[in-house]
């Protein structure tokens, strides 16, 4: 994997988990996260961080050929997104409090939203600027679902990066587990900034 891919992917996951989903503050033992598109470049990183850093119950969607691979990475459950009953199969696993849709079209975001039905407090995020208006929402769920819009590209600007303050847990984990080269690369991200997120 190229360094730039690692940086953008991890930057994306860090921004989503720390800034929008706020897992460090909100996640509790036993909580579940749904990674829609677990086999995407972003999804494979999100699964690993969700399990290794936050110790969440990880549910992912992917084609059957990727199920074993994603379980090796830390997914507790992997559901085929082409299954007509995918939403009910996710709901049958249990309440889903957090979700990141890494595919992020209106159809996949709708399914992610629907799969979190029945959970009293839900935090959703996607990577292509979808909002609540992009999907059909249930008025009865208004106020119980928060919508994020991660754009890792916004991390680039002149001021201090949000990662320094908001991703300390992820960075300390990476420092303790990764080789010097990769860690240096990741720490170099801390010279970036994102004023629009402050
Ligand atoms: N906002 C940001 O900061 C940001 C950052 C990175 C990427 N993105 C965007 O996020 C999107 C994904 O990027 P990526 O590079 O991570 O993707 P990618 O690696 O190109 O994803 C390919 C995988 O997507 C999976 N997939 C396709 N349709 C799916 C569906 N309906 N449900 C679940 N999985 C599905 C397939 O998995 P299977 O092989 O299992 O079928 C396929 O292997 C792109 O549009 C990219 O531009 C945004």
TrEMBL record:
<dbReference type="InterPro" id="IPR036291">
    <property type="entry name" value="NAD(P)-bd_dom_sf"/>
</dbReference>
<dbReference type="InterPro" id="IPR013149">
    <property type="entry name" value="ADH-like_C"/>
</dbReference>
<protein>
    <recommendedName>
        <fullName>Alcohol dehydrogenase-like C-terminal domain-containing protein</fullName>
    </recommendedName>
</protein>
<dbReference type="Pfam" id="PF00107">
    <property type="entry name" value="ADH_zinc_N"/>
</dbReference>
<feature type="domain" description="Alcohol dehydrogenase-like C-terminal">
    <location>
        <begin position="42"/>
        <end position="116"/>
    </location>
</feature>
<dbReference type="InterPro" id="IPR047122">
    <property type="entry name" value="Trans-enoyl_RdTase-like"/>
</dbReference>
<dbReference type="GO" id="GO:0016651">
    <property type="term" value="F:oxidoreductase activity, acting on NAD(P)H"/>
</dbReference>
């Amino acid at each position: 994997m190229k360094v730039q891919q690692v940086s953008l992917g991890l930057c994306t996951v860090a921004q989503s988990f720390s800034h929008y989903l706020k897992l460090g503050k909100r996640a509790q033992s036993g909580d579940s996260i749904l990674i829609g598109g677990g086999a995407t470049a972003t999804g494979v990183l999100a699964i690993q961080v969700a399990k290794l850093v936050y110790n969440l119950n990880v549910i992912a969607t992917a084609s059957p050929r990727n199920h074993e691979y994603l379980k090796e990475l830390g997914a507790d459950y992997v559901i085929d997104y082409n299954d007509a009953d995918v939403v009910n199969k996710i709901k049958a696993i249990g309440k889903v409090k957090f979700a990141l849709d890494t595919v992020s079209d209106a159809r996949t975001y709708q399914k992610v939203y629907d799969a979190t039905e029945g959970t009293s407090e839900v935090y959703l995020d996607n990577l292509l600027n979808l909002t609540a208006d992009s999907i059909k929402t249930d008025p009865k769920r208004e106020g119980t679902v928060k919508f994020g819009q991660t754009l890792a590209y916004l991390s680039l600007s002149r001021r201090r990066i949000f990662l320094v303050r908001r991703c300390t847990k992820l960075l300390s984990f990476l420092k303790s587990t990764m080789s010097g080269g990769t860690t240096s690369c990741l720490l170099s991200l801390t010279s970036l900034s994102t004023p629009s997120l402050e």
